[in-house]
Request: fold
Amino acid sequence: MKAFNLVTCNNCSWVHMSVSDGYVKAWIKEWKGHIKTRDEDWLENFGLNKKSKPTEMAKEEYLHCFNCRGSYKDFRDAKEGDVGEGHTIQSILDRKYELDEKKTRQEKINMLKSKNEVQSKKKKK
Ligand SMILES: [Zn+2]
Reply:
């Protein structure tokens, strides 16, 4: 078994490294610890403060394509040649996992709503 898989965004072809829900949950736990124990200056280096929520940070980081902000569900396995020269590989939650099913559904609904708003705004022009 490979330690990780490379996956490609169906929308923009950006290659990411897929990680498990356990990986993301461990990441959240680690950052909860950091936020509690580090001082404001340390946190500021990461664009954070004492009120930052690691769960929200993880969702921002792991549920969206780094390049086009598309959903982590809209990925396929990477093929040879997908990774371009000088391409930085970000990690993203594997599409078979759900971090928080309820919220992801709500996020999807919100996404559809904002998409519709964008489309209706375009139509008005
Ligand atoms: Zn993308």
Observations:
- Residues 8 and 116 are 26 Å apart (CA to CA).
- The beta strands are 5-9, 15-19, 75-77, 90-93.
- The first strand starts at residue 5 and ends at 9.
